[in-house]
Amino acid sequence: GENVEQHPSTLSVQEGDSAVIKCTYSDSASNYFPWYKQELGKRPQLIIDIRSNVGEKKDQRIAVTLNKTAKHFSLHITETQPEDSAVYFCAALPYNQGGKLIFGQGTELSVKP
Amino acid sequence: DGGITQSPKYLFRKEGQNVTLSCEQNLNHDAMYWYRQDPGQGLRLIYYSQIVNDFQKGDIAEGYSVSREKKESFPLTVTSAQKNPTAFYLCASSIGSLSNQPQHFGDGTRLSIL
């Protein structure tokens, strides 16, 4: 079955710097890759997603890139702000698996002012 | 994601007791999911339902049960067989299991043992 590995597990950056979180997946049939942000004690919130027919997607300071050949995708946050501090989860949706998202282990991002 | 309501927000369970966590959605979504999240950990799938009157086990179904009698409701029962139930429980829904659409989460229920 699908397996998603996420790195790093913790990331600390200075305000204004960029942050990059990487995920790899094992099932080449996976076709949808969302990213969630979870603040302490709250629900995961979808921040950006990408489908397998697209290589890159951007939304203001957030971008996601997908390399299907290498089976990895990355989240890029530019001009980080303290409010970006949270745990970020990547996920992959295997094809024809009942909509089951396979989540990475999470990255705790800390943005220092 | 105001369309997914979980209740209660906090729940305490005594030894040997079954407790039921509520999840209701008004998004007209076909698919619903239950996840467990332990402190500092990721999300693990307990059960999921692609359509009314149908559900499947996830990765950690032992000690849990669900029902899907109505499209908008997917309650989770934590039975006494679940020996370590303390966790944050998240319900999610999506338009349909066959489409590559995102899952949206409720606010969660935090379950503890008395």
Mean pLDDT of chain B: 92
**Distance between the ends of chain A:** 41 Å
Structural class of chain B: mainly beta
Q: Quaternary status of these chains?
A: heterodimer
Q: Residue ranges of chain B: pLDDT <50 for 5 or more in a row? A: none
Q: What can you tell me about this protein's structure?
A:
The complex is a heterodimer of chains A (about 110) and B (about 110). With about 110 residues, chain A is mainly β. Chain A is built from no helices and 11 strands. In chain A, strand 4 (about 30-40) and strand 5 (about 45-50) form a beta hairpin. Chain B is mainly beta and about 110 residues long. Chain B is about 0% helix and about 50% strand. Chain B has no helices and 11 strands. In chain B, the strands form 2 sheets. In chain B, strands 2, 4, 5, 6, 9, 10 and 11 form a 7-stranded mixed sheet that branches. Chain B starts with a strand and ends with a strand. In chain B, about 40% of the residues are buried. Chains A and B meet through strand 4 and strand 5 of A and strand 5 and strand 10 of B.
Task: Give the secondary structure arrangement, pairings included.
The complex is a heterodimer of chains A (about 110) and B (about 110).
Chain A: E1 4-7, E2 10-14, E3 19-25, E4 32-38, E5 45-51, E6 56-59, E7 62-67, E8 72-77, E9 86-92, E10 102-103, E11 107-112
Parallel strand pairs in A: 2-11
Antiparallel strand pairs in A: 1-3, 3-8, 4-5, 4-9, 6-7, 7-8, 9-10, 9-11
Chain B: E1 4-7, E2 10-13, E3 19-25, E4 31-37, E5 43-51, E6 54-57, E7 64-66, E8 76-78, E9 87-94, E10 104-105, E11 109-113
Parallel strand pairs in B: 2-11
Antiparallel strand pairs in B: 1-3, 3-8, 4-5, 4-9, 5-6, 7-8, 9-10, 9-11
